[in-house]
Automatic annotation (TrEMBL):
This is Class I SAM-dependent methyltransferase. It comes from Floridaenema fluviatile BLCC-F154. Residues 63-161 form the Methyltransferase type domain. The keyword Signal does not apply. One of its GO terms (molecular function) is methyltransferase activity. The keyword 4Fe-4S does not apply. GO terms for biological process: methylation. Its EC number is 2.1.1.-. Keywords: Methyltransferase, Transferase.
Length: 276
């Protein structure tokens, strides 16, 4: 039993297999929703912050962990990077291959990022950088990945990841709208109510309203999320908390958009290894 499992006595052995099965079931729906360029959540929040922290250079070899249908892999290739995209969902990798042009410098592979041995077969000191876009909260374990990255990355390499913000966008928050009087006028104010944060939890959820099968969210507070990285020698080197602009339209009152422009739904982190 590893540290992450020890902190959660209810850790079942089949979580990883169940997560894999759910993403295979939901792959076609997810691919149709995200398409070639992603949704606004990806385009406006995740991608710009990740690219700023990553600082892609032409010729960089980058590992895209949990690549899904290849949205970020294709973007990185368009910036001149050579990309290896991995995902444990065979169906998502098939979608990624189907959306990728032959000239793109991308190699896709079905690989479980919780399997340290399989990760290391990608080659030590093989990557200038690694990314994981909105994937770690879908992984039953993250410690094996962090351990493997200490060997997969070249000296001075970095790991940039994004997750649902553990403080403000975890499975235990509620969006709240309240009417209040201000200067003789009625205003609607939106806020976030947080019921749980500090304890790691496992819950079922729907990323898309029409997905065939719920998938599993593995909530980790920031101290545990970064703690796994610090334990193996990573240091925090950059951080962004992107939110939608105030003028961004809201699909409905209680949805991520302009009503919550002061509350970031995403956390984006850059990690680097301590110099030897």
């Amino acid at each position: 039993m590893n540290n992450e499992q020890a902190r959660n006595p209810d850790y079942p052995k089949n979580w990883n297999q169940e997560t894999q099965a759910s993403w295979n079931s939901n792959a076609l729906n997810w691919d149709a929703k995200m398409g070639d360029d992603g949704n606004d959540f990806h385009r406006l929040l995740v991608r710009p912050a990740t690219e700023r922290l990553l600082g892609v250079k032409v010729g960089d070899r980058i590992l895209d962990i949990g690549c899904g249908n290849g949205i970020f892999s294709r973007r990185l290739a368009s910036l001149g990077a050579k990309v290896v995209g991995i995902d444990f969902s065979e169906q998502l990798i098939a979608c990624a291959i189907g959306r990728t042009q032959a000239q793109d410098a991308i190699a896709y592979q079905v690989l479980d990022a919780t399997n340290e041995t399989a990760l290391l077969e990608l080659g030590e000191n093989s990557f200038d950088a690694a990314i994981s876009a909105m994937t770690l909260m879908d992984m039953a374990e993250i410690a094996p990945l962090f351990r493997a990255l200490t060997k997969l990355l070249k000296p001075q390499g970095c790991f940039v990841f994004s997750v649902m913000h553990p403080c403000f966008n975890n499975p235990h928050i509620s969006m709240v709208a309240e009417e209040t009087e201000s200067n003789g006028e009625i205003e609607t104010r939106c806020s976030i109510k947080v019921e749980k944060y500090l304890q790691p939890t496992v819950t079922y959820g729907l990323a898309l309203r029409n997905q065939p099968k719920p998938h599993i969210y593995f909530h980790r507070p920031i101290n545990l999320l970064l703690g796994e990285a610090f334990r193996v020698g990573f240091v925090l080197d950059g951080l962004e908390e992107p939110a939608f602009p105030a003028d961004y339209p809201n699909n409905y009152l209680l949805s991520w958009g302009g009503n919550f422009s002061e509350i970031p739904p995403v956390l984006v982190v850059r990690l680097k290894l301590l110099a030897a």
